[in-house]
Specification:
homodimer, 394 residues, seven-stranded mixed β-sheet, 12 helices, 39% helix, globular
Amino acid sequence: MKINANYRQLENSYLFSTIAKKVAAYKKENPHKDVIRLGIGDVTLPLCDVSIRAMASAVEEMGTVKGFHGYGPEQGYDFLRSAIAGYYQTKGVSLDPDEIFVSDGAKSDLANFLDILSVDNTVLIPDPVYPVYVDSNVMAGRRIRYMDANQENRFLPMPEEGVKADIVYLCSPNNPTGAVYGREQLKQWVEYALSNDAIILFDAAYEAFIQEPDLPWSIYGIEGAKKCAVEFCSLSKTAGFTGTRCGYTVVPRELICEGTALSKFWLRRQTTKFNGVAYIVQRGAEAVLTEEGRKQCKENIAYYLDNAGIISDTLEKMGIWFTGGKNSPYIWMKCPGGMSSWEYFDYLLHQANVVGTPGSGFGKNGEGFFRLSSFGDKENVKKAMERIAKLTRP
Amino acid sequence: MKINANYRQLENSYLFSTIAKKVAAYKKENPHKDVIRLGIGDVTLPLCDVSIRAMASAVEEMGTVKGFHGYGPEQGYDFLRSAIAGYYQTKGVSLDPDEIFVSDGAKSDLANFLDILSVDNTVLIPDPVYPVYVDSNVMAGRRIRYMDANQENRFLPMPEEGVKADIVYLCSPNNPTGAVYGREQLKQWVEYALSNDAIILFDAAYEAFIQEPDLPWSIYGIEGAKKCAVEFCSLSKTAGFTGTRCGYTVVPRELICEGTALSKFWLRRQTTKFNGVAYIVQRGAEAVLTEEGRKQCKENIAYYLDNAGIISDTLEKMGIWFTGGKNSPYIWMKCPGGMSSWEYFDYLLHQANVVGTPGSGFGKNGEGFFRLSSFGDKENVKKAMERIAKLTRP
């Protein structure tokens, strides 16, 4: 028996384990220091009340003969697919529930969706990047081209003349950079995809953080996108579902490949290799998409955005260049004094007892940059930024 | 952009949709007939109380700052991995929690596990078969060899001289045939795998139905199996989790491929393409593995096995050949009077108003056979079997 040799090509990422080791070593030597973590990419506020009540009631149902639910549809219950379509409608995008596929999260779908695409396709991936895009393609042996995201393009790379690709990854608001594409920019990407017979895999996991009404929160706000784009979204960041696991993928009916609706292949993949999301979780997801649920989730997002504001205000006052922080939970800052990402990590840990994430861990263009996250406790965020502001710049 | 051409090679299965259409048509013409379904492969009894209470409490936790859980480990929480190891220990198999990977179900894992194995491997699959084994390999373009399961070998095919394969699928107790391998038979399969450098993918989803103490309920009861077998299991049938979604896969430390522990690749696959099972569900799963939980689940399984006994007793009295029904929820019967699977389906629907599953839907060797399931209501099972017993044999 032979293993998939592509797995040997994967690069090991030591980013988060190195961070953990460095923090542990520092704390061991300095047990009384109050170390604040602004590195995490995970939510911290509890689930909203309406969702808790819906899941509690679904749990009770599962204990009764009448309310028990066995296998559900792999693509999700109609009640949830309709609720998601309703959510899109409130923001002006019309989708049929049949175009929506419920899953256990955007990460799974982003990786699993590749299953239905040929390994002969060339993939275009921004650098810096959420590592799943790269690793899932390396596992399949696809050819990867990188596009540079950098200070010049404000970490929003645009299509380039002569760069051919079949599959394009876009993530907006971006993880790790917090940068958000404008309407005109996404329009150029849709035009690129349509004229190159390419497909856009649009990661909209952070869409709920967008506050400015002019910024596109879905690729389907752009004309023609339904013919060339699949959108991946999740309740992880929208509703704090990182440990509750529910996402959804939109495969529009108009997206036709080689004469067949792509959704037909995705449905076949999901019915073969997936068995749907827990009934209890789908009821919780339905609840957060009600008017009351959306209101409660917005309050949580406002809390995180307040934190992001505290971080970005401090950086602005310090004259530090950054992206994100306004329509995103992430702030992507340039390391001061020409420090490398890891130099700044060590500097912050030792001088301010603040932990962030070195940008170089997300790709070569991340070198010299640093990610701060707004998912922490407000008092801690304030304290951390006060400490950073007081640092004598190197 | 090109799609994965292997998807074009998939055969469409119309088994369950044809059944649904035929039943609907019959009911439309005979609205007052009481049609009983013995075709379903899904549990019907509610979740046991201890699991409901654990999930209700986990839901409450998720609504509090202190009890909230965000991202969990992709391979499952330690509390659940330890509980699964404990469950194996009660049956005499020692596993380290690190060898256990929690997932959203055996179907997902059985399909996704192929991701880490080379597409150049040859696969050996029994016929008749649970269709996921076939389809997930067709999607990857692997060469499939079939082994005949039939009346002569009591639907338990054994290794054959000269038949080389790299990946072998075994499912015991079997879906769809209900047949269960004995210890000596599994020993031969383990020897085959070890001497052919093959891996056994052992589907143990129905292990909880095994009552006879001499029958192996895990492949790891066989010496040497940890060197050549991965075991897939699930709480779907053990604890009625078909709509709650929790399974687990065992990749023993001793299973080395090309010099590397296979578990290392599986962990990489899961951390890249999966984000773990909901905290709430993992707490429910932990509860069913406690002593009290196991007791409550056994009561449900006893109920289904009683149904299976009613079915098999009737068939025995009628002199009809069958497998299963004793250590399995399924009864795989020979169609009487030389009828084909679909002929018998129509005959039963029209003459007895009973719905079963035509064996031909599971592969060519299923032709002339028929699957009855014990997951229904006891009174209905009794009624159905009384009707079948009264039929004048064709």
